Amino acid sequence: MESMDRSDITSMRKQSLLPTGKNEYLKSKTNAQPKLKGTNKIFLPQSKILNVHPQFIEVEPSQFRSVVQRLTGRSTGNIEEETDQVMPEIFKKSKAYEDMFYCVRTFKKLECPGDVSQECLDCLVYCSLFPKDYEIDRDTLLQLWMAEGLIEEEPMEEIAASYVKVLCEHGGYISLLREDDGTGKIWYRVNSIEIPEKFLKTSRISPPRLISEDPTSVLAVAETDCIHVTLQRLLPKDFQALGRYSKIRTILLLGKNKSNVKSVPYDFFMSLQHLHALDLSRTKVSELPSSLGNARCLRYLDLSETLIKRLPETIEFLQNLQTLKLQNCPCLVALPKSTKRLTCLRHLDLGTLRPMPSMPAGMGALSCLRTLSEFIVGKEHGCRITELRNMNDLGGKFCLSKLENVAFPKEAKEANLGYKKRLMYLELRWTDDEHQDWIGAEYKVMKCLQPHTNLQDLRILCYGGSTFPCWIGHPSFGNLTKITIFKCASCQVLPSLGQLPSLESLSLIELIGVKIIDFHFRRDKLIAAADNENQFVAFPALQKLEINSMLNLEKWSDIEKMDFPCLRTFSIKNCPKLVALCELTNIRALKHLELNQCTQLTSLPNGELPASLEIVVIEKCPLFNFSFFSIEEKQDWVKSQHSPNSAIYQRETEMGRS
């Protein structure tokens, strides 16, 4: 039986997909999120499937009609996943099955563009600048859209993020790869889907563009009136060619390999009066010419992973600059003094800037900032923590370093961390210096650094106080899922972290002042006195607990039967004075237990283990009694590695025993 040609399917696709209702994305000014009015789906009507596919049938017509009836009303987004349940095997093996889903995928191509705003379509057309399967993090994509002027209403980032969701979920133009790869970023893949010509005609994205995988092609097409350029690699000689594009708006380096470009010619920025976005990341550029100030339309500048030492003071003339990226720039010694004049700056991504003594004076003028990866506190006027008072739109990841320079609690309070609702990740860092002259106000300063309860991840490094304020561990922090407390040498009492309802991961590292972990770790006594202790479960969501290098820890006691109901991984390392551990038998979800370098530990409480345990690792514990398993339990356990002071036990599964 003859199969329908692909071109026939393509020609019929516009008639063969009819929505059951009018679907239209509307932009709401109240919450700046696109709303889907109507059914939220596009359906594959029964009559249209039958009209397109009758000649495909390699099974009985009645059987095919039955299949179509079962598919009727299912959305194109789910139809492929659901077909396995309704398609006869004989049909799934046929050419018709393949062609049918070629048609379905074609329908999906048009599902998004027909129903979204022109602004969202412009963002879609911009994605055509990227090569097939290009991976990009969401924040970069949003910032490039903004640089091109595709998003104009506030809040721009939220509107742009909603367009990403639309293009991903409803059009399939981009695909979600992974969320939070350790950097807090969300990564997408730009799919290779041809955009219909009619959408290109209505788009504000100027069509002339050059997508080059061969760097030499820049010179070859220098006469082209190019607007957008994406390159896999940049050569020194390419600057001359790029300078000929008087209308150029975008220059992006997309290659993963570093470029040998070490400098940028002075006249490069003189000729590019319309440049909106410039990416020179992963080059060997160590400085930019003062002519940078002539690129007054520039909104996006990425110098990440370069050898840049300083930026020219003429950067102050870039009054439209929205995004400045300087991640992983090990040679950067300071930001320009004129940084405070970049009042349109929304994203200042500095990565980790340990060599810088402080931020430039007057950063408080940048009240539009939504991203500031790190603020280095200084002692001089204009460099203090009080500069943060009006930066209440800060979000994402934020590090406050050199907090030893905060002399008075009042200054910490004026930073208004509690008003910064968008902060998800907060790092509070004091300088790691054994000879640090502590001013004695650490506790009061920390108390005034209380963030908003929306916080999800908290890191405290090198704090000099002996105790922690009660906000650390207060149950009102219902979104807090991860805490790391590192190298707080003076700390003697752990905060009451058992009260946090959503805490999933906890790391306590190098807290050498702590000798005993007691009831206070579970719950604050004042809160316990005002509540019913019988109903309280400590650490209700904790899945991973790490205790490392607590050199003076001797004992952990006082946990209750219902505590740690979700704990799966528990490790205690390098605690040479630990002699008594808490009762583990009642931790019923525990899968992995590791004891390492606990040289005084002789056994586990009652010599028993939770029935849920699958792996026990005991290393460098010379006094530990390895006969803690009963005779019955030994039948279920296999010793995979063993030495005089170490052993790894793994419980056999039912499959393994058979």
Task: Explain how this protein is built.
InterPro entries: LRR_dom_sf, LRR_R13L1-DRL21, VQ, WHD_DRP. Residues 53-76 form the VQ domain. Residues 129-169 form the Disease resistance protein winged helix domain. Residues 385-510 form the R13L1/DRL21-like LRR repeat region domain. With 658 residues, the chain is α/β, with parallel strands linked by helices. Helix content is 20%, strand content 18%. Among the domains are: 6-111, no CATH class; 118-202, Arc Repressor Mutant, subunit A (Orthogonal Bundle); 268-341, Leucine-rich repeat, LRR (right-handed beta-alpha superhelix). α8 crosses α9. The longest helix has 17 residues, at 95-111. The protein is globular, with a radius of gyration of 30 Å.
